[in-house]
Task: structure prediction
Amino acid sequence: MTSKSHILIIEDEEAIRSGLTDLLVFHGYTIETAIEGLSGLKLALSGKFDLILLDVMLPGMNGFEVCESIRKQDREQAIIMLTAKTTDEDIVQGLKLGADDYVAKPFSVAQLVLRIEAVLRRTLKVTDVSEQIKLHNANIDCLNLNGTCGEASVSFTRREMDILQYLFVNQERPVARDELLNKVWGYARDMAIETRTVDIHIAKIRRKIELDPSQPESLVTVRGAGYRLKVPE
Result:
């Protein structure tokens, strides 16, 4: 997989950019780089990258703006944000804008490589994935990453659809946050990943499939057990 994976690094700090390039080339990835937001965005929208490593603090156009612009045109592009900002507000903002993951600086080289590999392995390991999911108030087209909720049209990122499909396949039971991180994100169970990554994605999905996200009918929380997708019979 890695010998064919093409990664774009958008990072303005030369030492970090060079270090990441050397590290990922050593692990078999093909690398291109950009040093500021606008040129990075132009490269990102070329559609030739399997993954984008995106720094938050960039000259010209910050990483949040770049991430949002990518998502408006490409809902499947894998994005990991690199940030020295580790407050809840900054992390939540990056995930809400569509990043698949965030890694705080300074980061463990070993864990960064594992998280890159996990994002690149995000294809669901299930054998029965539906093309359509019908919920109480929403109809979802899994293949085209869109659907309707009530009278409104909605669209999904690939990550959001992966979550929905995994919950659909396992609809008879609640699915724990750790299981979603393992099966959807591809993280090993012993990796120290914040479960709010899952919670933020769940909140985004609820806003798209529930008429009242504060009182969900389809994507419900099972206290102490995780999340369950309730599908009408």
Remarks:
- The first strand starts at residue 6 and ends at 10.
